[in-house]
Amino acid sequence: MERLPGFRDFYPEPVPHPDLWSADARQFIFDRWRATARRYGFREYDGPPLEPLDLFTLKSGDEIVGQLYNFIDKGDRAVALRPEMTPTLARMAAAHQRNYKKPIKWFAIPQLFRYERQQKGRLREHFQFNADIIGEASPAAEAELLALLIDSLRSCGLRAEDFVIRLSSRNAWQQFLADHPPQSIAGSFSPPPGVPAHSSSDTQSAIAGSFYQFIDKLERNSAEENERAAGALGFKLEEINQFIAQGSPTADLELIVNNLRARGLGEFVKIDYHVIRGLAYYTGVVFEAFDKKGEFRAIAGGGRYDNLIALISGGKVELPALGFGMGDVVLLELLKARGLLPKFDAPIEFFYAIEDEALREDSLRRVQHWRDQGRAVEYPLTPAKPDKQFKRAQELNARFIFKLERGEDGKLMEKRKDLTTRQEEVMAV
Amino acid sequence: MERLPGFRDFYPEPVPHPDLWSADARQFIFDRWRATARRYGFREYDGPPLEPLDLFTLKSGDEIVGQLYNFIDKGDRAVALRPEMTPTLARMAAAHQRNYKKPIKWFAIPQLFRYERQQKGRLREHFQFNADIIGEASPAAEAELLALLIDSLRSCGLRAEDFVIRLSSRNAWQQFLADHPPQSIAGSFSPPPGVPAHSSSDTQSAIAGSFYQFIDKLERNSAEENERAAGALGFKLEEINQFIAQGSPTADLELIVNNLRARGLGEFVKIDYHVIRGLAYYTGVVFEAFDKKGEFRAIAGGGRYDNLIALISGGKVELPALGFGMGDVVLLELLKARGLLPKFDAPIEFFYAIEDEALREDSLRRVQHWRDQGRAVEYPLTPAKPDKQFKRAQELNARFIFKLERGEDGKLMEKRKDLTTRQEEVMAV
Q: Which residues, 6+ apart, have CB-to-CB distance to B126 below 8 Å?
């Protein structure tokens, strides 16, 4: 009986096989995400991993269905395993935002699912640290969110030489489009093969949609491909490249960078208009975090999405919002590659040896005593030879070995040996 | 857009509506489960929430399909959201048990899913603390597992007056069946209506299966119903009631109770042969934890299942095993009813007020300083009046309010006010 392809088993360390994942390493990054979010005043939320299919098609269009784990449940509902958290967050925030002071600062660590047919060996689930700020239009919110993103990575041991956040803004590209209106091709706009038109009926927005997808692929495609695609969209590649090379910050981006500099975090960001984000729903600043050596896919990505909550709530609630997602897979790969994952031992502090079975019940009493004191204690469940017990204590990386002995006066003594210093202490119990 | 019926949204406290669930309370019990498991030397694991359907039918028979979220995925695989963790654990342990020293002590906190058509308002998902010991046949393992169960509940604040674990054993009932062979009814065994025969072709085991289901319902049904059902199975209700009332412990149960007494945990268990557990796969000791007032469903349940790993591994691996599951729903209801859930405030320690916008950048620097020191710090993202900032600090339950001021000598001073004692301190920064 095998697990499904694209899904992961998480084992305690040491993980028996390179194809398996470490439950300890996963918990290590979850703990750091959670602790950092709390230092920033973000509160935890969660929603169902299974949602109505409509929640996702409403946001992303029907095309997304091909990538979903979707099915009809026994109550005839069209449902899907969540491929991302933002629609659920928008649903939850829209329903009860009145009860929370703005700005709402929330985080979650959901497991997300995508059925991707083509890529062999590609994962079909991952965990994602999601942090969002809702109800604040000022770019001060972007700065706060980016500081959280930076510190989440720093809390895992990553430094400025390891990663950088590339900051961009759709507003900058909107300005570019206004300054460089596309040349009409054969009188009407039609996207080139492989660049699907945005589903909006608004031509302006359709141009922007196709243009954003073109920019998104700019670094991956060859110069010739880019030249051709730019021309097909009615733009000059040279002007686009010039605009990116110049990288003049918008007013928002300038404010964000200055804010981060004031915190001493300026070195973690740079303006880079290559970044545009594939998703249609971003409305302003967008960003992606990358490892500086360029060995991995994006570590995290996000941006502002001021229209989504209105869309999900059917226009009932309008709130500006922004957020990011950071997956566990790339982060764990990066931490491993940089030697930043600690050695995960069993959490045992005390090994309570039982060499005299007549003292088993007294030993159990003392095991309970130390566990009640908050100590992680292991002991032999069944009779075992002293050397085997000692070996087990070492395997478990216990700091101390305990054992009971009865003195000549009939009184019990508890012996404690420090396995690091080899020092022994004796206490009457 | 609504969430699916039977699924829960978890909101930060204070939760806006009694129908919604608290993400903070959930994290509170997760933290306590995890910390207690570690004190007992249990290691964390996890598997996929989606598994091949066969994994569950192999263990529980085809009848379980009616209660599953199952579907055909885009690769034509029959899959199901996990309704319980034990099959996944058995699959994972069987695959790599050679790499782990016995006994294996593992825990997980999975979300589990069941599609139950009939019950309105009944949840279709819950989280469950699962702890298992694999590779130890001695009842010393039961005692260790039960001690963990007791301490998991104690760590949430529950006491001996709040809950008790009812201990039983299928071996005791096997002995009863041997001592009281069922009277043949019309020459052959056939289960009464509503008591389906166990799927095994072995008559002995079929009798045991139907008998266990009868015992399982004994407390819920009326005396007349029980009389009738006992007769239909070929037993005398009086003998069954007598056997339960007598409650003579098996050798295993005696050892377990003595072991727990040695730890000072004897008051948390009692032998009660009413408990038999519905699931077919238990092989020895079984147990359930209940609130003493009898207001709630079982808090936790488990037992020994020595044959399951062989079943799941197709006979490749044979290992004795036992475990328990404790759901979040009943536990949260019980803790709430007993007033044991703490007040969950925002985690803020410091509120950094910014009254002079000229000092915003310096204030951001100090916010970062304190967050770097591990403090949870909040501040106004945008300019706000001092009284509004003070009110916000109080809402967030901040312990200290900070602010920067520039002295007459032009130097910056950081003022810190303790909101509990009203004491103020000033530091040059």
A: B111, B112, B327, B328, B329
pTM of the entire predicted model: 0.94
User: Whole-angstrom Cα distance, residue A360 to residue B314?
Assistant: 38
Asked if A91 and B3 come within 8 Å (Cβ–Cβ), the reply is yes
Measured in angstroms, the CA of A190 and the nearest CA of chain B are apart by: 32
Domain of A414 in residue numbering reads as: 350-428
Q: How far apart are CA B410 and CA B414, in angstroms?
A: 13
Between β-strands A78-81 and A412-418, what pairing exists: parallel, antiparallel or unpaired?
A: unpaired
The tokens for B336 are: 């709430």
- The interaxial angle of helices A360-372 and B251-262, nearest 10 deg, is 50
- At residue B378, does pLDDT exceed 90? yes
DSSP bridge pairs for B89:
none
* B253 and B299 both lie in a single domain: yes
pLDDT in tens, B153-171: 999 999 999 999 999 999 9
**pLDDT single digits (tens) A40-83:** 999 999 999 999 999 999 988 888 999 999 999 999 999 999 99
Q: What does the pLDDT read at residue A120?
A: 66
- Between chain A and chain B, the number of residue pairs with CB atoms below 8 A apart is 241
pLDDT tens-digit readout, B198-210: 444 456 677 778 8
- If asked whether residues B35 and B71 sit together in one domain, one would say yes
Q: How many CA atoms lie within 13 A of B83 on its CB side?
A: 21
Which candidate from B40, B262, B360 shows the least CB-CB separation from A361?
B262
3-class DSSP state of A391: helix
Of A202-206, B58-62, B359-363, B373-377, give the lowest mean pLDDT range: A202-206
Any domain includes B423? yes
Tally of domains in chain B: 2
Residue B211 lies in a domain: no
Name the band, by pLDDT with cuts 50, 70 and 90, for residue A428.
confident
Final residue of a domain: which of A337, A367, A396?
A337
Quick check: A92 and B26 CB within 8 A?
no
In a domain, B198, yes or no: no
Residue of A nearest to B93 (CA): A11
